[in-house]
Please model this.
Amino acid sequence: MTEEEARAQLEEAERLREQINSLINRISRLTKENSELRIELDSLMRNISILASNAKTMDSEVFALMSYVSDKVNQADTGTYELSALIEELSSSYFTFKNLSTASKNVSHYTDEYYTKFSFFHDLRRIALGYVVGLDAHICSDENMRKKVEKIYLQNTDYWLAYGIMAVMLWASDEEEAASRAVTKAMSMDFLSTSLFFLLINLRFTRTEAAKKWYLCYLSRVDKNNLGPEWQYILQAYLKGAFGGDTEFSNHIREYFIDMIQSLESMNPEYKNQVTAKTREYAEIYLHITDQEYEHLRRYCKDYDQMKKLLSDAEKNGVLATRYKNLLEGEKKENQDLFQRIEDILYSLINSYDQEEFIVIKNLRYNEMIVRAKGDIGLAQQFFHASFEKEPDRTSFDKLLFDWAFTEDERIDISVRKFAFSHLKKWICAGFEAFAKEYRQKEKENYIFTIDGWEGIYDEDSYEEAKVSLSKHYYKNRFKDTISDNYIKVFSGMCLASLLIILIMFFFFQKIALVIGILLGIVGGFLLWRRIVDMMGILKARRDKGCKFLNSAMEELRQWRKDYKQADEKAADLIQVFEEFN
Model:
C-alpha cells in the first residue's frame, strides 16, 4: 500500500467517524424530541378528554337553549298570526267605534241645543197648562201670571201658542177685543192647532156650545182623505170621553169615526194586504242588534254576519212583545178624572213640535238611532228614513192609523196607539207571521268555516270529520307554508350566495372571498336548518290551534243555534200581545 492510499484510508475513516458521531448526536436529539413529543402527546390526550367532557356539557346546554329558543319562536310565530288577525279586526271595528263616538257627542250637542235654543217654548208650554189649571182653581192672580205670560209672549212672537194663551188670559180678564185679536193672530199662524187648542180649552171649562163651534171651525178646513198629525188630538179626546158631556155632540163624533173606520176596507180593498206588507217591512228594518257575540264564529265562519242578523231578527219578537205589552199595561192605568184627561190632551197638543224644533229633534233622533244601531250607519239610516225622516205631512186616515201604531214618537198618546192596534191587529199579526216565516227560511243546517285557507261546510256536530279535513289541509300545504316563510327565503338566499361565490372561485381565486363564501354557506345552512326545524314546530302548533279554534267555533255554533231557537219561540208571545188589544 502506498503512502497515498494509506492517507486516503485514514481520511475516509475520519470522515466515517464524523458521520457516526453526527448520527449519534442526531439520534440523541431525536430521542430527546421523541420524549418531548410523548410528553406533549400525553398532555394532548388529557386535554382531549377534558375537551370531550366540555363539548358534551356544552352540547346539552346548547340543545336545551336551542329548544327553548325554538319553542319561543314557535309561540311568537303563531302569536304573530293571531295578532295579525286581531289587528285586522280592530281596523274593521275602528270606523264603527268612531261612528258611535261621533253620534254620542252629537246626541249631547243636539240635546243641549234643543233645551237651550227652545227654552222659551218649554216655559211657555208649562205656563200655558199651568195657567189653565190655575184659572179653574182660582189660584191665578192677574198680576203674577199675566207678567209671566206677557214675557213669554214677547219672546215668542213667531209661535202660535204665545197668542193662544194670551187670548185665554185676556178672555179671563174680560178684554174681549184684545182677546179676539190674539185669537186671529194665532189662527193666522196655525189654524188647525189653534182651533183644537180652543176646542180643548172650552171642553176643559165645560163650555160645550163654544167647543162645538171650534170643532166645526176645525172641520171646515179638514178633508177626510187629507188629514194632518193634529187629527190624533181629536181622536184622543173622543177616546178619553172628552165629548161625553153633551150626548148629541158625543154621538156625532162617534158616528164620524165609525164612518171613517168602516170606509177603510170599502174604499181600499187592498188595505189589509198593505198593512200586512208594511208590518213585515217594519219588523225587518226595526232597529235592534243582538248583544250576543261569538268571537270564534266571527273569525272563522263566513256566514257570521248572516247568522248575527238572523239572531237579531229572531230577538225582535221578544223586544217588540215587551214593548207592546208595556204599552197595553200602560193603557190600563189611565186617569179617571175627566178634567185631568182633557188637560193631558191639551198638553199633548201644545207639546207638539214647531217646525224649527223639528229640525233639531230630527238630528237628535238620527244620532240616537246610530247609537241604538251600535254604530251601523246604514241600518240606522234605513230605520230613520222609514220612521222619522220628514215632518208629518197630510195624509189619509188609513195611513195615519199605521203611523200611530208603529211610531217612534213617544208623544203619541197610548189611547191613540191602542185604537190603531185594535183595528189593525188582525193584519198586523199576519205581517209579523210573514216576517217570522221569512227569517226562518234563512236558517241553515250547515255553515261555512274557514281557517288558514281551509274551507268546509259543517254543522255543530261534525267536529271530528271537520278536524280530519283541516289536518289534511295543513299536511298538504306544509311544503308551501315552509318555503313561503320569509326567514326561509333569507337563509336560502345566503346558501345560494355562498354557492355562487365558491363557483366563481374556480375561475377567479381569492382567499378572502373563498373564506367569506364558505362562512356564509356554513352560517346560512345552519340557520336554514334551524328555521326548517322551527317551521315544523310552528306548523304543528298552527295545526293544533286551528283544530282548537274549529272546535270552539262549532261549540259557539251550538250556542248560537240554542239562542236563536229561544228567541224564535217569542214569536208566539208577540202575536199573543196583539190579540189582547181590543
Observations:
- Strands lie at 447-451, 454-458.
- Confidence is low (pLDDT under 50) at residues 136-140.
